[in-house]
UniProtKB/TrEMBL annotation:
Organism expressing this protein natively: Gemmobacter lutimaris
Membrane topology: Multi-pass membrane protein
UniProt family annotation: Belongs to the sodium:solute symporter (SSF) (TC 2.A.21) family.
Descriptive protein name: Cation acetate symporter
Residue spans crossing the bilayer: 6-25, 77-95, 116-133, 153-170, 182-200, 247-269, 281-302, 385-413, 433-451, 457-477, 489-507, 527-550
Keywords: Cell membrane, Ion transport, Membrane, Sodium, Sodium transport, Symport, Transmembrane, Transmembrane helix, Transport
Main subcellular location of this protein, as a coarse class: membrane
A GO molecular function held by the record: symporter activity
UniProt GO BP: carboxylic acid transport; sodium ion transport
UniProt-listed InterPro entries: Na/Glc_symporter_sf, Na/solute_symporter, Na/solute_symporter_CS, Na/solute_symporter_VC_2705, Sodium:Solute_Symporter
Amino acid sequence: MDQFTLNLLVVGATFALYIGIAIWARAGSTAEFYAAGQGVHPVMNGMATGADWMSAASFISMAGIIAFGGYDTSAYLMGWTGGYVLLAMLLAPYLRKFGKFTVPEFIGDRFYSGTARFVAVVCLIIASVTYVIGQMTGVGVAFSRFLEVSNATGLYIGAAIVFAYAVLGGMKGITYTQVAQYVVLIIAYTIPAVFISLQLTGNPIPALGLFSNEVHTGQPLLQTLEGLVTDLGFKSYLNQSDTTLNMFLFTMSLMIGTAGLPHVIVRFFTVPKVSDARSSAGWALVFIALLYLTAPAVAAMARLNLINTIYPQGVAAAPVSMADIEGKEELAWVRNWAKTGLLTFEDKNGDGLVQYVGDKEVNELTVNNDIMVLANPEIANLPGWVIALVAAGGLAAALSTAAGLLMAISSAVSHDLIKGQLNPNISEKNELLAARISMGVAIAVATYLGLNPPGFAAQTVALAFGLAASSIFPALMMGIFSKRINNKGAVAGMLAGLIVTIVYIFLHKGWFFVADTASFSDSAPMLLSIKSTSFGAVGALINFAVAFAVSSATGAPPAKVQDLVESIRVPKGAGAAQSH
């Protein structure tokens, strides 16, 4: 059976499973659409949270960006993992104790203000739409290669699939679909990693293989890789080249951004009790760790395989020729990925060889970060079924998070904006209709922006984390742990943090992500060495400072709100979410 047919069979079978689950678990009420009826088992919820959390950025892009960025990009691992611990310990149980459906609803009630709720909706939509762009980018990358279509066509197909099961099933359908997607993605991520670890080190556990000796050289794998990349003129894989300030702020931005992501927070509203929220957070961390402990090994081994493929006789000898790439079966992966436009090769100097070196003027092979995990099994000449499985896993990761984000967007529009602000007397049927329409619009916007993303999938997602870090996280923290912050302070803080961060991002990425309008770049940032992906931590500090200053200059919150804050911090059971 040829690879294309195998890809269609495996990917098609998983899609049929997702849509079948969505039909089986179709939401029939707003409680089921927004919070899955609050009846999800903690282990199932932990698995769904893992799938929701491990997006295209984690599955497709993170290992790729580490493969080419080395030590500097390890901040992705530290920030995202540490942030989830923050979320599990500081926010999830207390928000579940409050017993509402959405993050803006909590902010609106805690800060006794429709304006605060509206600003929270705006912050949520901006962060979530930016995040979903990264997911759609990943969907386009996966579909374009494995269905042998253009990147744009792949993105359209992925959008149609998300629309089919997310709009139909709501949170209930999404939850059980994400359980299936987690199983698919974790198997798809670990099986090729085990194969490649065995090939390169003889160790079947990739995380241990990373620190084992490479079988051909007898040297530690990382030492072998370091020697190859530096000999070819690339920056060091093991040494820090970014500034400590930017790395620290980037890690903090990812951490607190993680804790402020609405599509992850809302998962903790789907369990019956506060204790279940804590339990599901613990299970989710276990499920997430299975992938995150493997990712550094996947990154290093993919980079090593890439170099060894281009320089089969070693970097001191000649690289592969144009004739080799055009004719040899073991280099078919280069030809296949070149069709997607995500890999390019050319003979600039006319010597018939393809140089892969650190000097951009001389380099003749360009590989998009986002293809490394998906291409890794092909580079390593693994069996066709493994390649098809990786395709299904990458799509599962992207689609699961996209669905969660779209759920957060639709609930913010229908529940918090339309029902909470514009039309409080809307019927449940019409509220469900509004939720589904808003989700469809969000999919269309994300697809359009996904055609021209502001960076690699992981970089685009990092921008979304910065937006969540600067706007939502401080409001949630102050809402739970400070009785003194009032409505005026909360609104001023969210607006200040959000606006400053958006402006900083646009100055570096272009206004509304139109690249030609950028005034600075991340290689030459506006403020010290702080890149656009790291500014969320600064925006969060501004949010906190403005909120405390404005609250101190104005009246204290009403006594009943202060009592509410006190009760939230005592997690002894949770009231049911209010019916709407």
